[in-house]
Amino acid sequence: MTRIDCHQLAPTMLDLAANQAMVLAAIRASVADGAEIILVPELVLTGYMFATVEEVLSVAIPADDPLLVEWGTAAGGALVIGGFAELGDDGNVYNSAAVVGPEGILAVYRKLHLWDREKLVFTPGEQAPPIVDTSVGRIAVMICYDLEFPELTRAVALAGADLIAAPTNWPLMPRPEGERPAEVVILMAAARVSHLAIACCDRTGVERGQDWMAGTSIINENGWVVAIPGPDGVARADLDLTLARDKTMTDLCDAFGDRRPEIYANLYPGSVRSDPLTA
Amino acid sequence: MTRIDCHQLAPTMLDLAANQAMVLAAIRASVADGAEIILVPELVLTGYMFATVEEVLSVAIPADDPLLVEWGTAAGGALVIGGFAELGDDGNVYNSAAVVGPEGILAVYRKLHLWDREKLVFTPGEQAPPIVDTSVGRIAVMICYDLEFPELTRAVALAGADLIAAPTNWPLMPRPEGERPAEVVILMAAARVSHLAIACCDRTGVERGQDWMAGTSIINENGWVVAIPGPDGVARADLDLTLARDKTMTDLCDAFGDRRPEIYANLYPGSVRSDPLTA
Questions:
Q1: A279 at interface of B, judged by CB pairs closer than 8 A
Q2: Which of B116, B175, B189 has its CB closest to that of A189?
Q3: Which regions of A19-129 does DSSP assign to beta strands (E)?
Q4: What does the DSSP 8-state code read for residue A122?
Q5: Which residue of A has its CA nearest to B251?
Q6: Cα atoms in the 13 Å half-sphere on the side-chain side of B71
Q7: Which residue of A has its CA nearest to B249?
Q8: What is the pLDDT of residue B55?
Q9: Could you list the pLDDT tens digit for every one of the 279 residues in chain B?
Q10: Whether B250 and A151 lie within 8 Å, measured CB to CB
Q11: Which of A31, A178, B63, B161 measures 20 to 30 Å from A6, CA to CA?
Q12: Is A278 an 8 Å CB contact of chain B?
């Protein structure tokens, strides 16, 4: 079993030092408690509600910044996954997430799908979500709005991911009474249809007038929510991530084996999108 | 607004005449009540728990059978969508669904993804789900286990469907207390990410020892369940199906416009499945 901790934090806008201290405290608490995979939210080092590109540039850091390396040092043998504003070699700023281990930075992912006003201040990524092969399982990383594209969640599962680890910043949206956040429903379905686990680490607090969903959830390979944050703001679950490698449902059914790829490749040749899932 | 009725019926195994009478009564009740789209379950004319191919052959009917035409006659101006065991010209038997209107049979779909023991008695389809252009909207048809493949639900949305109409026979499965059936969660997510409505018409009763989920649900284009069956076994909802044509979420976000098809086409070239969503 692998212990996963998601820290539903409330970053301070534009205060790298304060946010780094908050993240390091969260990591240390999880390590003391036995966690092996530790998530913190999207853009946890900077806050989210940027007004201008200049603001983002003032707190953007390179993908190999010592602040990120320090996450791994604090984590002992655990892995840390969290978001930051990345200053690229090209001078652009990306909404990125790093996977950091004791050896240093294992992977950096640039968000492919930018939500709303992110489009005004960030440059979208151009590379697939990394799938990091670790001693506890294969971990794919994506960020927030990415999760609403079944193309991506299905693809990482088919490529062999056991867990999707996703920092998020979900703005609070209305929903019918008694329902889970729509974003969580989408993740439950994504986990269920592809038999993999999903850990999403959302944020809380109010930032420049914006309220947040605080929807942090850990979802098992059957699609059920097994943990949400307790009073301390941490969602904790023990999962055997390798269960995601068995896609069978009955003696005669397999979630991947029952796919009809030869049919999917040419479903609606007469439509505007001749190959709907890739074109 | 378009009135949709889903009749959660309990067919009698192998009794075409009794099941046809039950379907016609359901259609007439809905027509009297103003419904414009009427759904009945998967394999409603035959029951589901076939023991042998010979049993299926004994109740399979051609795709232009008078029993199906009679659905349209009974429906006045409404559309009827429901399941039957189809005897193909090739001698094979398919788990099919028909869309029937006053003009006759508008489309027949052969289930692409066969669940469990269906594989022992049916031949899988080879054609994409039909999308029938009607005066109230564009209606895609798929059947039960098909809905668990995001390749298919996303594809019909991208091809322009406003509503997925899906006859189902969901076997009862355990779920955590307070949760919706996993199959319904999958549909809520499919509707939400692609902004289209979904009506699934499940069955009830006990058949040869099998209990059923009775999970009939009508889901709007925001992914929320707006109707489940009342005491009379009918789920009713009034939906403006054309709302599915607006995929915008904010001034800067569009569920389809924000897709990255050029990225999806080559996400994991090094993996076994080089194009995960189509290969």
A1: yes
A2: B189
A3: 37-39, 79-87, 93-101, 104-110
A4: -
A5: A116
A6: 30
A7: A116
A8: 98
A9: 999 999 999 999 999 999 999 999 999 999 999 999 999 999 999 999 999 999 999 999 999 999 999 999 999 999 999 999 999 999 999 999 999 999 999 999 999 999 999 999 999 999 999 999 999 999 999 999 999 999 999 999 999 999 999 999 999 999 999 999 999 999 999 999 999 999 999 999 999 999 999 999 999 999 999 999 999 999 999 999 999 999 999 999 999 999 999 999 888 976 544 333 433
A10: no
A11: A178
A12: yes
| 8 Å CB contact between B244 and B221 | yes
Name the residue type at position A207: E
Q: Which residues of B touch A228 (CB under 8 A)?
A: none
Q: Tokens 């995929």 appear where?
A: B247
DSSP state of B103: T
Amino acid identity for residue A273 in this structure? R
List the beta strands (DSSP E) in B120-278. 131-134, 137-141, 163-167, 197-201, 206-207, 210-211, 217-219, 225-227, 234-239, 248-250, 253-254
Spatial separation of the C-alpha atoms in residues A265 and A91, rounded to whole Å: 38
b (16+ CB within 10 A) / e for A70-98? bbbebbeebbbbbbbbbbeeeeebbbbbb
**pTM over the 0.95 mark:** yes
DSSP state string for B211-236: EB----EEE-TTS-EEE---TTSEEE
